Amino acid sequence: MCSTNRMPRVFITGLGFVTSIGNDAATVTRNLRELRHGFELYPPFQKPDIPCKVVGTVKDFNTDSPDPEDWTFPLRYKIKRELLRSMAPNGLFAHCAMLQAVEDARLADPDISHPLTGLYAASGGSPFLTHWHHERLLKVGVMRCSPLGIVAAIVGTLNFNLVAAFKIRGASCGFSSACASSAHALGFAFDDIALGRQQRMFVIGAEDGNVDAILPFAGMRTLSLQTDPNIASRPFDAARDGFVGAGGATVVVLESEDEVARRGVKPYAELLGWGQASDGYNVAISHPEGSGSTAAMLNALRASRVEPEQVDYVNAHATSTLIGDVSEARSLRAVFKNAATRPAVSSTKALTGHGLSLAGAQETGFCALALREGFMPGNAHLTKVDPECEGIHILRATENTPPTIVIKNSSGFGGANVALVLKRVA
């Protein structure tokens, strides 16, 4: 049992992935090591009036139809028709990633459907299905609309569907802080376990990654206009011109120290703690000096009882936008003041693109893989570092050096910032 004079420790014991760089942990690990991206010229964007052309696509899934019965997905997943009827594309991705995570963590049904097992999820909902169901309502009338259209489309669709499908009986909630959403979900899930409220939490981030989910960001002038998938996403590079949109899902299983011992499982990593802070600056743009990100990292380090000099690697939020990458670079210099001991830094969005609400969970999963497998992924597609981003130790290539302490940064609209601190398990 855990000592009564300290909070229970929290571990990552299972992962599930549906991503642009692979739909299982082994493939994702290989592509992270080898810096193989998941970008393609996206057919719906190859029109003269659409300026962006490249997307981080999910392979082996086809969810183009608004009717789930038309969807195709890998045969290994057995999903009942009545479950599919209330899903959005991101719900399908999340369900498949959940099945992976359950198997990976070696969880039995009584472990999953238990009063002390909960689920937190994050997504922007499904703009695709919201639009489709609304248009149908206007064209054919409300009584000819699907009774499940609401739960399939709105922001809470992930937690609605997953809690019902997997018979979750513990805490459940959806998180909405834009691109910081699933990182927030991980932080609050950590608190629930550390405070003894729950013994196990599933944390999920997922996005559709289709036209309706990605194209509106072109209106914000934040998407890359590159036509070459090999250079479209290049965080910290002087020639970067915006992010590449992506979809998919990641599931992270968190468990208490007692549950890890009881079940005899080997964790991927320990989640030591987390911190958050707000910029208080702008609805859409990061603070120029990265003040909120700085505060979030310092809060996370303090909560985790870790000194800046102990951090080996930072998985940056850096999305490949002009303002955001500079802001984060400044925050990293502010937190890690000693240039000689600054940690290695990379943004894996150079490989995956930006999954919006998915990003925090997905990249925490990447950090867990890196900690267990003993490597630090490089920052792909980096040719010339932006002078404003100089002074941080950006990895040009993957290093097969096992990190011990890792920070995962996430930021969202309104200046929401989250930092998670993870530790290698001996």
What do you see in this structure?
The chain is of the alpha/beta class and 426 residues long. It has one domain (10-424): 3-Layer(aba) Sandwich (Peroxisomal Thiolase, Chain A, domain 1). The chain contains 15 helices and 13 strands. It has helices spanning 25-34, 81-84, 89-104, 109-112, 127-140, 149-153, 157-165, 181-194, 211-214, 216-219, 257-263, 291-304, 322-335, 349-352, 359-373; strands at 10-18, 39-41, 54-56, 117-122, 172-175, 200-207, 248-256, 269-278, 313-315, 344-346, 393-394, 405-412, 416-424. Strands 5-4-6-7-1-8-13-12-9-10-11 form an 11-stranded mixed sheet, sandwiched between helices. β9 (313-315), α13 and β10 (344-346) form a beta-alpha-beta unit. The chain is globular and about 65 Å long.
Sequence-ordered SSE layout with sheet pairings:
Elements: E1 10-18, H1 25-34, E2 39-41, E3 54-56, H2 81-84, H3 89-104, H4 109-112, E4 117-122, H5 127-140, H6 149-153, H7 157-165, E5 172-175, H8 181-194, E6 200-207, H9 211-214, H10 216-219, E7 248-256, H11 257-263, E8 269-278, H12 291-304, E9 313-315, H13 322-335, E10 344-346, H14 349-352, H15 359-373, E11 393-394, E12 405-412, E13 416-424
